[in-house]
Amino acid sequence: MQDKDVKLSSGDKIALISNLSTMLSAGIPILDAVNNLLEDSKSGVKKILETLRDDLTQGHQVNFTLAKFTNAFDKVTVNVVKASEEAGTLDITLKDLKASLQKQNEFNDKVRSALIYPVFIVGVFVLVLLVQLVYVIPKIAMVFKNLRVPLPLPTKILIAVSDFMLKNTIIFLFVLAGIILFFIFLYTKKKGFILNIFYSLPGVSGLVKLIDLTRFSRSLYLLLNSGLPIVAALDLTSEVVVRVQTQKIINKSKEMILGGKTFSDGLRTAKGYIPTIMIKLVETGEKTGSLDKSLADISEYFDYQVSTTLKTLTALLEPIMLVVIGVMVGGMMISIIAPIYGLISQVSPH
């Protein structure tokens, strides 16, 4: 397995950094700490520790090793470690990094949890639809055919789709696979364009902006706290956000700082996008020389805002999805039942 192919779960990454931090804080030399951790390590963690041991033996630093594992450690993590090694504060920075990763993990869990319900509901609906089309509709269609029952248009459509699926299963699967591959190809080639459309949707836009600002402020805090200059830190944080608009604001702020302005001046140019509270806290942090602490407070504030927004969206989405799915399933059932009632009304005595 090549270094770049090694991946770590969030839990493994946090555990690795936490263990290194604990041992270094206890005064154990880094090489001894790595050797101790190797005894109980497995899989990807073991590969990283083995490489780290070899690199340390050759005189390299920890960041040199982490930079090799691009799928396990992002540029922010690598540069935070590099800056702390240069400042001689690796043990302290690893503690901060662990705390930041834990918060990021909790943050991602919140977002993931909010998506589970709608995905589950859609999955159940698709399953019900397939069962209806493959098993239920063919049997009922045969009954209708034998009894020569006049069918409404929705019922005819359901029977036609079911009939096509059963008679042309291979073609259907090829068409389905083709559609999926087309969207995958489209997403690969036009990822930025598609994501920008998605991020602009009502409800999604505001949430994605908050998520962006949370990641941005947390990453910037971590980088500044490790001793990295603000221009270099901004350069790295532009890679952790997803919205193009957020990236442009970060780059604009960097340009203004290079031109002699302050970070808050750069944020103020996007006042309609950047919340006033963020601008004010950054400005205060710059004046008091505690910008990193201000950014930590900002990330906590946005984290809370994201949690609140997710709860609100989930609370709204659940009943809406239930109604939509209920109407669709109900429509299918009515399409099946309506001809039966029509038949009953024809044979019942007047």
TrEMBL record:
Keywords assigned by UniProt, alphabetized: Cell membrane, Membrane, Transmembrane, Transmembrane helix
Domain of life the protein comes from: Bacteria
Type II secretion system protein GspF domain location: 17-138, 216-339
Q: What is any Pfam family matched here?
A: T2SSF
Q: Where in the cell is it found?
A: Cell membrane
Q: Which GO terms describe its cellular component?
A: plasma membrane
Stretches that traverse the bilayer? 114-137, 157-186, 193-211, 223-242, 320-344
Checking InterPro entries in the record gives: GspF/PilC, T2SS_GspF_dom, T2SS_GspF_sf
Describe its membrane topology: Multi-pass membrane protein
Family stated for the protein in its record: Belongs to the GSP F family.
In its UniProt entry, what is this protein called? Type II secretion system protein GspF domain-containing protein
Which organism is this protein's natural source?
Candidatus Woesebacteria bacterium GW2011_GWB1_39_10
